[in-house]
Design a protein that fits this description.
44% of the residues lie in helices and 10% in strands. With 372 residues, it is an alpha+beta fold. It folds into 3 domains: 119 residues; 76 residues, no CATH class; 105 residues, no CATH class. A 6-stranded antiparallel β-sheet has the order 4-3-2-1-5-6, with helices on one face.
Length: 372
């Protein structure tokens, strides 16, 4: 299980858990060459994590091993790799399969074991391993009192401050390399490095002398500027590509430039805002949902789509429906009513499709408790 956070623009930060179920099938290996027999001396004997496994990557359902839980929705979703692979195999949607394959982790983890990469969802905070106490993997596991917190091993990734990671990196790298290895260079780290010689806190001393801290500060500021410039460059590239795509679909360059700053370089998000903000781009169904509404302020259109409730899903029809209802009630109330309908519909569809596996109860009670 991988714990991560995801920035949601004006709506704050979401937290989630990506579950990787069905670990260690009989084909599992972390070495080059042929797969070793289960429990062979070369694979660790009785310590082989495959001991007792009944799983195989050849199982038709093995791809159904990635589940995503979001705190904002308090719901868990299965990522349906099998369906996308089936659609692509029929030759009906190469593009869908190509886009979906980008979710997979690089190397054999994705191509052989169908592991969705947690990097798709934001900043990884850590990994949570469920290890039932005194359980023999070769013996079928039976629930007794349910899992407890003592069965969880929490491995923080960015749970410690940047200066802690920097102090560890300095044990093996020089100052510049250590700074470059940091996942985050934040204001707290810069402030700590700026402390004068009289500041002798443990956190400061862990980074070395005042002279060394000044040197680290110089490298940190230079690296932060480099990263910010790279982010700006990448955003410009995203915006240029989004503009190219949207212009090819018939949207006005002027309208695109007005909307794009609110959309983080996303062509999909920008198109949704354009359809809500400008009546001339709406489909017949979208205009029916809008009623007699004309053009909408871009800021208001973006907030309705993405800034109040995730249950609208960035859908122009639902956003326009909410804006029409908001003629009589506050916008937040209008969105809340539609969000409630969409949530109920999602749960009914999930129930009919039997999406919820046995592990969901565990997700809500124990992982939910950890996050909150």
């Amino acid at each position: 299980m991988v714990l991560f956070s995801h920035a949601m623009s004006s709506n704050g930060v979401d937290l989630g858990v990506l579950f990787h179920a069905r670990e260690h099938p009989k084909e599992f290996t972390n070495r080059m060459g042929p797969v070793l027999p289960v429990c062979s001396p070369e694979s660790g004997g009785a310590r082989d994590p495959r001991r007792g496994t009944l799983l195989s990557i050849q199982d038709p359902s093995f791809q159904d091993r990635n589940f995503l839980w979001l705190l904002s929705l308090n719901a868990c979703f299965r990522i349906n790799l099998r369906r996308c692979a089936s659609v692509a195999a029929q030759g009906t949607s190469r593009e869908v399969h190509s886009e979906f394959s980008k979710l997979l982790a690089p190397g054999a983890s994705g191509s052989c074991f169908f592991t969705v990469d947690e990097a798709n969802f934001g900043t990884q905070l850590g990994t949570i391993c469920y290890l039932p106490k005194d359980h023999d993997p070769a013996v079928p596991f039976h629930w007794q009192d349910g899992p407890g917190l003592s069965d969880l091993l929490c491995i923080p990734c960015h749970g410690f401050p940047s200066d802690w990671h920097l102090a560890r990196a300095l044990k093996q790298q020089d100052e510049e390399e250590a700074v470059r290895s940091l996942a985050t260079i934040d204001a707290e780290l810069l402030a700590l490095l700026k402390h004068d010689e009289t500041h002798e806190s443990r956190r400061c001393l862990r980074l070395g002398s005042a002279r060394r801290r000044r040197q680290l500060l110089s490298f940190a500021e230079a690296e932060l500027n480099r990263r910010n410039e790279q982010l700006e460059h990448d955003m410009q590239k995203r915006q240029c590509e989004a503009t190219r795509q949207l212009v090819s679909r018939g949207f006005s360059w002027t309208d695109i430039q007005e909307v794009l700053p609110y959309c983080e370089g996303s062509a999909v998000r920008c198109e949704a805002v354009l359809r809500v903000a400008f009546a001339k781009y709406r489909s017949s169904g979208e205009q029916a949902a809008a009623g007699d509404l004309g053009n909408i302020e871009v800021v208001k259109a973006n907030r309705t789509l993405f800034g109040i409730s995730n249950w609208l899903g960035g859908c122009p029809t639902l956003a326009l429906q909410a804006l029409y209802v908001a003629k009589a009630v506050p916008l937040e109330d209008a969105v809340a009513g539609i969000a409630k309908e969409q949530e109920a519909r999602a749960y009914e569809l999930a129930k009919d499709a039997q999406v919820y596996p046995y592990m969901f109860t565990y997700t809500y009670t124990y992982i939910g408790m950890l996050l909150v």
